[in-house]
Amino acid sequence: MQQVRKLVSVADLSRAWWKRLYLQCCDIINYPDDYVGFCQGRILASMFFESSTRTNFSFQAAAQRLGAGVFGFSDPLGTSVSKGETLADTIRMTASYSDTIVIRSPQEGAATAAALYSEVPVINAGDGGHFHPTQTLTDLATIAQKRGNIENLRIGICGDLKHGRTVHSLVEAMGMFTGISFCLISPKELRLPEYVLRQITSHGQEYVESETLSECIPELDILYMTRVQRERFHDAAEYRRLKDVYVLTKKMLHGAKSDMLIMHPLPRYGEISTDVDDDPRAVYFEQARFGMFIRMSLLNDFLRLPRQKPPQVTEGLTKLQCNNPACITQSDFYLPKIVSHLGADRCGYCDKKFPILTF
Ligand code: NCD
Fold first, then answer.
1. HSE, side-chain direction, 13 A CA sphere, residue 217
2. CB 155 within 8 A of CB 222
3. Minimum-distance ligand 1 atom for the alpha carbon of 166
4. Residue 62 CB neighbours (<10 A)
5. Ligand 1 site-directed mutation target among 50, 51, 55, most atoms within 8 Å of CB
6. For residue 83, is pLDDT > 90?
7. What is the pLDDT of residue 359?
8. Which atom of ligand 1 is nearest to the CA of 165?
9. Cα(238) to centroid of ligand 1, in Å?
10. pTM (predicted TM-score)
């Protein structure tokens, strides 16, 4: 298997690599002491341009449990980015001091852009409302640990499907597995974006869209709840109107399967009532712990890779200009204009369709 050098989207993850990462993760869970010092002398750079608790802490804990050092920031105000340094230059510098970079940014495509300038592996810890592939590794590890496999699942995903980056990556990753179908539960305004829906159909999987949570629950094997993403709304009134649409309570679980998993990437903001926490089907806190182990597995692969000059971008170039205001290309004009792996009519950073040109 060719060594992968980045995890910026689920497209970087093959089934073979997932299997290897998961087997190593199981070994780490069973024999954590065997891995102490595996990455001694290596350094993880942790660049969080957006707030985080679980992802940031679990990466730091994962690196330190492997014996690696960590430097970084969780507030860009203390860095030269606040003096106007470009992402490309910041990444070149950071890569020169470290062995792997983890980056979280409010801008879609930031990790893809970072990987173009880095001599060390780049991991996307969340790019705006786009993708969050290591939360997906966490989710897959949780399902595999709890059910023994990831096959034949009816998955209900509920909440803010429009802005939920964990949802977008999870849906794409499910294309690697068989017997998967989805029940997508959201208000009309927060439906799954078109580029993610396309992934479901391109994998030959089925989905229904629904606005009612209780109606779907009895048929589900997994219920994946999500928070309405306040930070992605332009209209505060719209956020207030939609934020409490779904609240999962203990009472609603009466008709649910006895082995249904209740998952959530966390943080929650009222969408799972605390009376659900002691239900044996609620696995969201364990899920966060599995996240640390699967990140140890990932870092163990990446931190020890030799440095490599980033490849020159020669393919997939376009003259088209993305107009998604959240896309990294809106601020970092020097970036090569590339097309998405989903099609030449889409931006290679944020996957949104280019505007149709009229002459
Ligand atoms: C998620 C995120 O940041 O996208 N949290 C996480 O990484 N565990 C979900 C969220 O913030 O709602």
1. 20
2. yes
3. 4
4. 28
5. 55
6. no
7. 62
8. 4
9. 20
10. 0.96
User: Which residue's CA is the nearest one to ligand 1's atom 7?
Assistant: 55
pLDDT one-digit tens code per residue, 160-214: 999 999 999 999 999 999 999 999 999 999 999 999 999 999 999 999 999 999 9
Other residues' Cβ atoms within 10 Å of the Cβ of residue 144: 18
Core vs surface per residue 279-309: b (16+ CB within 10 A) or e = eebbbbeebbbbbbbbbbbbbbbbbeeeeee
- Listed in order, the ranges of the chain carrying CATH 3.40.50.1370 are 6-132+290-302, 134-287
351 CA distance to ligand 1 middle (Å):
20
For residue 349, give the amino acid letter: Y
Q: Which of 124, 135, 165 to mutate to test the pocket of ligand 1 (most atoms within 8 A of CB)?
A: 135
Residues with CB under 6 A from ligand 1: 54-55, 126, 132, 135, 165-166, 227, 229, 265-267
- Please give the CATH topology (third level) of the domain spanning 6-132+290-302: Rossmann fold (3.40.50)
Q: Match domain 134-287 to its CATH number in 3.40.50.720, 3.40.50.1370, 3.40.50.2300, 3.30.1020.10.
A: 3.40.50.1370
For 281-290, the pLDDT digits (tens) are 999 999 999 9
Strands 343-347, 339-340: pairing is: antiparallel
CB atoms within 10 A of CB 119: 17
Residue nearest to atom 6 of ligand 1 (CA): 265
